[in-house]
Amino acid sequence: MSNVEPNPTDSRHTSGDGSRVPEVEVHSPRDVPLGGPRAMTVRRTLPQRSRSLIGAWCFADHYGPDDVARTGGMDVAPHPHTGLQTVSWLFSGEIEHRDSLGTHAYVRPGELNLMTSGYGISHSEVSTARTTVLHGVQLWVALPEEHRHTAPDFRHHVPGTVRVGGAGVSVFLGTLAGVTSPVPTFSPLLGAEIVLEPGATAVLAVDPAFEHGLLVDHGSVRMAGTPLRPAELGYLAPGSDRLTLTNESGDTARTVLLGGTPFEEEIVMWWNFVGRSQQDIEEARADWTAGSRFGEVRGYDGDRLPAPGLPTVGLRPRGRVRRAGEGDSPRR
Ligand code: MN
Question: Which of 117, 166, 181, 296 would disulfide-bridge 121, Cβ 3.0–4.6 Å?
Answer without folding.
Answer: 117
